[in-house]
Amino acid sequence: QSIITAFRKQAEFCRARESSFTAAVIDAVGDLLAEDSEKRWALCEGLEGDPVKGAVALRFAGGLHALILQNRAGALSDYYQTPNKVPDTAKLRKEIAPLLESERDLFIDYVSGAPQTNEVNRAAVLLLGFSEIVRQTSPPLNLLELGASAGLLLCWDRFRYDYGDLKWGDGAAVIKSALLGDVKPHLKDHIEVRSRHGCDLNPRDLSDSATRLRMRSYIWPEQP
Q1: CA neighbours within 13 Å on the CB side: how many for 179?
Q2: Residue of 174, 177, 219, 176 lying closest to 83 (CA atoms)
Q3: Whole-model pTM?
Q4: Model confidence over 162-188: pLDDT tens digits?
Q5: In the chain, what's the furthest Cα-to-Cα distance?
Q6: Any residues with CB less than 8 A from the CB of 96 and at least 6 apart, and which?
């Protein structure tokens, strides 16, 4: 029952963050697992720890997205073409149910490992924080990240930032965000980074195609 609770909570979390498509997918999978305890046990046997904290629902959502990215999801792919439209949960269940059977090994693999989202848009906050640190102290910065995964956020100063009226950097990757409140932050024109180091329990190697696919699969379809 804790697994089903994890699905319900994750769906609520997604909806609260304007990701209703992913929420609908999670609801559909949760319904299917709630209806079939034998299937739930078989697919989640490798899950360790708290299903809520372990984001078990996102593991299933990632597995489905991986099938989409590999053109292995049949008619389910049609729904992922328009992720800004919230699909009917019953229709999703109809398309997802056979995939839980035919792609059982893939889902078991996804459920047995924790998600690594590598959400680089989080760098929108890092730039503000590091800019303030440099304002109050002396550069250069020595970066050390715990849980660095593939190390994408260690490259925060190589992105281009667009906060609307406030912009920073000239990188090819654009980080778009919005500033709330009346205080406009002061961004340093240049922030020198002397060293970058990261560690992770399961570091990701971006030179490996399977790793790149896995990381892409954890990006929610409606938030490219």
Answers
A1: 16
A2: 219
A3: 0.87
A4: 999 899 999 999 999 999 888 888 898
A5: 60
A6: 25, 28, 29, 32, 64, 76
